[in-house]
Amino acid sequence: MRKVVKFGGSSLASAEQFNKVGNIIHADAERKFVVPSAPGKRDADDTKVTDMLYTCYDLAEAGKDFGGQLKAIRARYQEIIDGLALQLSLDDEFKTIEKNFKEKAGRDYAASRGEYLNGIIMAAYLGFEFVDAAQVIRFGENGEFDAETTNKLMRERLTSMEAAVIPGFYGAKEDGTVRTFSRGGSDITGSIVARAIKADVYENWTDVSGFLVADPRIIYKPETISTITYKELRELAYMGASVLHEDAIFPVRREGIPINIRNTNAPEDEGTWIVESTCQKPKYVITGIAGKKGFCAVNIEKDSMNSEVGFGRKVLQVFEDSGISFEHVPSGIDTMTIFVHQDEFMHKEQKVVSGIHRLADPDTIEIEADLALIAVVGRGMKSTRGTAGRIFSALAHSNVNVKMIDQGSSELNIIIGVANADFETAIKAIYDIFVLCQL
Ligand code: ASP
Q1: Confidence class of residue 283 from pLDDT cuts 50, 70 and 90?
Q2: Pairing relationship of beta strands 31-36 and 3-7 according to DSSP bridges
Q3: What is the pTM of this model?
Q4: Is 182 near ligand 1, meaning CB less than 6 Å away?
Q5: What is the DSSP string of 272-330?
Q6: Ligand 1 center to residue 228 CA distance, Å?
């Protein structure tokens, strides 16, 4: 068995956290490939090293003095090195970083140093080999991630290795220019490493004991999901549930490698398993609930819309031409509604309205703002009758007016549109009926 273990920023924020990580790695001889993030927050008021690096580089780029900020970053690492009693000096590394900042090496380069330096410390601490991600993770000319070249380079480099530390979050173009993934991207690096070495498991260690059935800011102590499929996770992540970077499932998915989300501060917890498919029945009919506020509905009416071939295409053309992506398009005989993100749509609304009039000649267009979308996701819904019925009667009992319903053809999710003001009440009602009433 070979396991790739990725540790998030809060798991590596201090020497104390590093020690927990060390214990986790040493507790299992199969944990040989380690992907660290940059040091995160030590407490709620702290600043992540990645954010400190961005600030520092912005000063450098503006030609201002960045010495004080760089010193503060250095102090974060020195505190870890001293706390672990390591014989390691980052003098040369910081000299290079200072020089490159002066030469304006770029924001991506700056941010990547957070993971790079933490990787050097981690390798020294564990006695593992350090592999610079710039040499094995490749971005194309236009900055897009090149999955196949990366897989080849990573595989060639790691196959002969017994154990290695590969810093997360960044890679480089062929000419050596450093590029990063979007924020939280070390999750993607872990997945890339797991794919390359054909790992049996990709363990993603963070500060929660897995994926929760609902947002803990809305539901008090929600249940943890024990097993979730890639597809379910994607639906929930898209609607705002965040534990893992959205793109982190793609590399492992190609090899059918499961991801196990674990808690560095509670290593005995089983966490959540993210798998391609499973015959394990979910504990509840639904696997999870997630949602987002801030949508607009553009309601379009036209008599006999149903018999006008091409009407929908013309309407959607206007959204495409305005560079607005739509979320859902429920329709009736004479009506069609387009759900869009309010902040994206707001500045272009009049252009869109006149565009629709010009191209599709509807009778009326009405815009409804401040709506929320809620996704109720679960592979168990397919085989259970009455799921939709239970959702809507729970919402009715909680006095929530449903504005839109959309069930995907996969029967994996039901999307519900409600007013922003009803968002939390709706989530509570759905959680209660499926989870609390089942306990
Ligand atoms: N350190 C980076 C961030 O704060 C990447 C990561 O932690 O995954 O976003």
Answers
A1: confident
A2: parallel
A3: 0.88
A4: no
A5: EEEES---PPPSSS--EEEEEEEEEEEEEE-TTGGG-TTHHHHHHHHHHHTT--EEE--
A6: 24
